[in-house]
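One chain given next:
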Amino acid sequence: MTESFSFLFPPAIPTLPIDGLDARFPVGRIWCVGRNYAEHSREMGSDPEREPPFFFTKPADSITTLSVLPFPPQTRKFHYEAELVVALNAGGANLTPEEGSQLIYGYAVGLDMTRRDMQEEAKKHRRPWSLAKGFDNACPISAIRPATQVEGLDQSILSLKVNGVLRQAGRISDLIWSIPEMISALSHSVTLRAGDLIMTGTPAGVGSVDVHDVLEASCDNVAQLTIRYE
């Protein structure tokens, strides 16, 4: 007698579109760098001159490419954080910044959406804040643009508008830790893999999102991302 298990099924691998190609980029893990713009670090109460990079994760299946999203439950303080996303097509451990830069496949624009009230409550009680960062549709991301098609990234402006009003803007060169340095630092804690995404931090100006708000995130020479909450 052969026993069948209806609960056994192959996991779906999240993917992102690649700009100009029919192929899609399979996403492995999402690594997020905290407080990597000096002004944002200050607005969150930290000292950007002393704090080394730290990382947290979002589930890969929290990514979404939908343009209309449901407003998430369990929050009355829902915040946007616009970020440049780095996609890796190779991996490694204990890398130098120079070696880390060789892993980059391309770049995208993403939103690290955060249930801030849930995060603040968790921090107050010294509890994990995974649910504040890793809920359904917590990570809207644009199509990936291959690095070979991106020029002058350091001078590109990462920005976000809410209902047409500019809320965030920062130059990529203003990152406290450069992209190769971030990749190197992370590779000393985990072995990086092809398919990993790194969200590189958000500029100052983080704020609240309400139902029916339209968010427009963009990075010069990379992508634009527009979503609306219903």
